[in-house]
Design brief:
Layout lengths: L3 E5 L3 H13 L4 E5 L3 E5 L5 E5 L15 E4 L3 H13 L3 E8 L5 E6 L5 E6 L1
Parallel strand pairs: 1-4, 5-8
Antiparallel strand pairs: 2-3, 3-4, 6-7, 7-8
């Protein structure tokens, strides 16, 4: 149902470096790019895009907006969460269980966008 998610950035080069390194561990690679945006995908599933806002204003993160990425296992959640933090992401909830069947780690990217790696 989800085709792609877009996150705003004020520094495309920095965002590209962060997401190239982080999403490679999920098998994702760049599938489209221009001087305003970059899009990553792993296979034919949903895509993640970072871009400069169309209106030319500053990119800001939405309060209550979050992107959740299926990691494929608890160990993968742990590894991807740790890598996001090592790449300059900010902790929003360490990787661990949330209830009986949900395991997740929450972080913000260098632009302040909130993301989550999870496994159910």
């Amino acid at each position: 149902m989800i085709g792609y998610v877009t996150l705003g950035t004020n520094d495309l080069a920095r965002a590209n470096k962060f997401y190239d390194a982080l999403l490679a561990d999920m098998g994702a690679k760049r599938v489209m790019e221009s001087d305003r945006y970059t899009v990553w995908a792993a296979g034919n599933g949903p895509m993640l895009m970072v871009c400069a806002p169309f209106d030319g204003g500053a990119a800001t993160q939405g309060n209550g907006v979050m992107v959740a990425l299926a990691a494929g296992g608890k160990e993968k959640v742990d590894a991807l969460y740790a890598k996001a933090i090592a790449l300059g992401g900010k902790d929003e909830g360490a990787a661990g269980p949330r209830g009986d069947s949900f395991y997740a780690g929450y972080f913000r990217d260098p632009d302040g966008n909130k993301l989550c790696f999870f496994h159910m």
